[in-house]
Design goal:
Blueprint lengths: L1 E11 L4 E10 L2 E6 L4 H4 L4 E4 L4 E4 L1 E6 L12 H10 L2 E6 L10 H14 L3 E4 L15 H6 L5 E2 L8 H14 L3 E3 L4 H4 L4 E2 L2 H5 L4 E2 L1 H18 L3 E3 L5 H12 L4 E5 L1 H5 L21 H13 L4 E2 L28 H10 L6 H16 L14 E11 L18 E11 L2 E5 L2
Parallel strand pairs: 1-4, 1-5, 6-7, 7-8, 9-10, 10-13, 11-12, 13-14, 14-15
Antiparallel strand pairs: 1-2, 2-3, 5-16, 16-17, 17-18
The protein binds N-carbamoyl-L-aspartate and zinc ion (ZN) (2 copies).
Length: about 425
């Protein structure tokens, strides 16, 4: 199979390329990149894609996804989750370990890889938990898990509250050069909190979650990363002070990276519609001041990654009682359009910076040979029409999850093609 992608705006952060170029793929690799490839180079192309007016990015990588498979397949399955990823423009995703059972040994990890092999149109990577069963008591065998193919360790969904145990985990991770993806919420301070603490949580009469719930663990774990030399990646940042703490850590030369999710740079707690638990996620939607700080962090490089934290739940877990509803929203199929609408269009990020945060930086953090549009590399390519406007309709999602606060929102920027390993796994035109 040969695909000739013509006249697209090729955005390759690895080489800082932002230019109108042609790309030719052959089988699963990139064969040629250049200005107006000659007719003898392209004569036998099986597919010609006119990418005029479109961004052509290295295949997007979402390093924070909940696939819910094994065990929670009433929320999402390997099939539906990876299809949703392809629809959203992602050619690689990292699945979190908080499934049932938790992915905490090599056997369970290998089973996920086998399952993905049998049905996924895109590449699935699986994170392994930090502690057995995510119980926070006993560490997993990180060396064995790395050997079985886990690119990262993560207790996402929870914080390892025992600082001494977490420090041990960081020492192990450092010796194996595995990044640790850190969910930062102090369980004792969070209590039964459901929404950001403030006027809105008071008005809705639900318990609040303060910024310190998040910031204290971010600070703790950055200090532990300093002590242990581990590579620490802070998941789903939502607060103003998290930006200050991470910025300072980077200035100190620590191996700290961080991500923000589209809902946290798009919405504030003032947007919450009473009785609609699709506005409930961990960490919660914060204040305008926090959102502005996140955008500043995205602009100045404090934030390396945009990830979705795709967290599908069934309708019965997202009922109108916000206090008791599950935390989390789906995101794979809305990340690109929200990033373009909220960050690229207003000029906060250039399209090249978007590609960096949605492909090249996640690849570097996970230590995979992806995110770079170069001859000889995997033909993982995402083609986006940045001008296409549409209304988000959760009924059309490939994901089983309908839990999004963005249903009915008008957005700009549409994934036209997702090409993974030289195969087209999404096409709009
Ligand atoms: N973000 C969420 O609100 N929920 C996630 C867990 C997590 O990412 O912490 C989930 O697994 O449902
Ligand atoms: Zn989390
Ligand atoms: Zn998560």
């Amino acid at each position: 199979m040969k695909i000739w992608i013509k006249n697209g705006r090729v955005l390759n952060p690895a080489t800082k390329t932002d230019e109108i170029l042609d790309i030719l793929t052959e089988d699963s690799y990139i064969k040629q990149i250049g200005k107006e490839l000659s007719s003898d180079q392209t004569a036998d192309a099986d597919q010609i894609i006119d990418a005029s007016g479109c961004y052509v990015m290295p295949g997007l990588i979402d390093m924070h996804v909940h696939l819910r498979d094994p065990g929670l397949t009433y929320k999402e399955t390997m099939e539906t989750g990876t299809k949703a990823a392809a629809m959203g423009g992602f050619t690689t995703i990292l699945a979190m370990a908080n499934t049932s059972p938790v992915i905490d040994d090599a056997e369970k990890l290998s089973a996920v890889y086998e399952h993905a092999e049998s049905c996924s149109p895109i590449q699935v990577l699986q994170a392994a938990s930090v502690t057995k069963g995510m119980k926070g008591k006993e560490l997993t065998d990180a060396a064995e898990l790395k050997k079985a193919g886990a690119p990262a360790l993560s207790e996402d969904g929870k914080t390892v509250m025992d600082a001494s145990l977490f420090r041990k985990a960081l020492y192990q991770a450092a010796s194996l050069d595995m990044p640790v993806l850190d969910h930062c919420e102090d369980a004792s301070l969070k209590g039964k909190g459901a929404l950001n603490q403030g006027a809105v949580s008071k008005r809705l009469n639900v318990e609040g979650i303060t910024n310190a719930v998040e910031d204290i663990i971010i600070a703790r774990d950055i200090l532990l990363a300093k002590e242990t030399g581990a590579r620490l990646h802070i998941c789903h940042c939502s607060t103003e002070d998290s930006m200050k703490i991470i910025r300072a850590a980077k200035q100190d030369g620590l191996s700290v990276t961080a991500e923000v999710c589209p809902h946290h740079f798009t919405l504030t707690d003032e947007d919450i519609i009473p009785g609609n638990s699709n506005y409930k996620m961990a960490p919660p939607l914060r204040s305008r001041k926090d959102v502005n700080a996140l955008i500043e962090g995205l602009k100045d490089g404090t934030i390396d990654v945009i990830s979705s934290d795709h967290a599908p739940h069934a309708a019965h877990e997202k009922t109108s009682d916000i206090a008791s509803a599950a935390f989390g929203i789906v995101g794979l199929e809305t990340s690109v359009s929200l990033t373009i609408s909220e960050l690229v269009r207003p000029g906060y990020l250039t399209p090249l910076q978007m590609a960096e945060k949605m492909s090249w930086n996640p690849a570097k953090i996970l230590g995979i040979e992806k995110g770079n549009l170069a001859v000889g590399k995997d033909a993982d390519i995402t083609i986006i029409d940045p001008e296409a406007e549409y209304v988000i309709d959760s009924e059309t999602f490939a994901s089983m999850g309908r839990n999004t606060p963005f249903h009915g929102r008008k957005v700009c920027g549409k994934v036209m093609y997702t090409i993974c390993g030289g195969e087209i796994c999404k096409r709009v035109r």
